[in-house]
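May I ask you to comment on the folded chain given beneath this request?
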Amino acid sequence: MVDLAAERVGGKALLASDEFFAPKENLLKPGRGVFIQDKYTEQGKWMDGWETRRKRTSGHDWCIIRLGLPGIIKLVDIDTNHFHGNHPPFASLEGAVVNEGEDTLTESDTRWVELLSRSELKPGSQNIFQIESQSRWIHIRLNIYPDGGVARLRIYGNVVPDWSTLKGADAIDVAAVENGGVVMASSDMFFGSAQNMIMPGRAVNMGDGWETKRRRGPGHDWAIIKLGRPATIRKIEVDTNHFKGNQPDECSIDGLYWPVSSSRESLISPLARWDVLLHKTKLQPDTRHLFEEELRPAGEYSHIRLNIYPDGGVSRLRVWGTMK
C-alpha cells in the first residue's frame, strides 16, 4: 500500500485547532521523528511532531489533512513516537470529499464521515488501525482527545485517480503512483524500496531509489509493477540517477496482461506468460535512459517487470502508455 498523505506525494496539513508546541506539518514528514534532549523553543520543549497546548476548555484538538493521493484507505498509523506523558489518550479519524474550496472544511454543513471511532492510543508507539470504508477520500480529519502530541500520521491505501482529468492525453505514465501504479513484488529491496521507483519527480539522492544487495550467486534481480490501468506501452524511462558504480550492468523489461485481481504468488508463478518488451540493454551510471523505438509493441499490458542484471540500483521507472 501507499502512504496517501505523505509529504513526498503532495500531502498537506491544512488546518489545526492548535499547534502551540509543534507544527502540524511535521505529521506528514518522512521517518518516525527524532528526539533532541536539550532542544527548546520560546514555547517550550522542541518536538518533532504536532503538539497542542494543554486544553483548559471543553472540546478536543484536531488537524485537517488533504491527501496527496486521493484513494481508498485501508490502514492508519497514529504514531506517538517520543511522546511520553504528553500523548493524546484517544484519537478518531474522519473523511470528507470537498472539491469546491478548502475554506469550507470547517463549515458546519461539511459532511465528515467517521472512519475510525474514538480509540485508545499508547505512548511512544505506532498505533495501527484497520479502516473498513470502500469510498474514495480526499480530506482527513485527525481528532485527538483532549490534547497532546502525535509524531507522524500515515494513511495507507490504494490510489484512485480521477481518470476523467486524463482523458485525451496522448500518453500518460501508467506506472506512476499518482496514476494508480503500485509495486506488487520484487526480488530484493535491501538498500532501497522498489516503491521509490514510481514516486513523483526525480530521486533526491541514492536512498530515494530501488537498490538491491550485491548478488553473489546466479540469477538477477527484478521488480513487478501493476499499472494504474492496462495500456499500450509507447515509451519507457529507466533512470539510474545518483547510482554511480552501483547501477545495474544491463536491464530488460517484460509485459503481462492480467486484468483480474492478482497476487504476488500468481505474478511470479510459471503460469504467468510474460512478453519481452525490451531485450537486454546496457545501462550507464547516473543517466536517464529513454526507450521508444527499441520497444516491441504487442497490445495492452496490465503489469510490467523490470529485470536488472545482475543487481544494483534504479532511481525511477516511467512507463508511458495509451489507453482505450
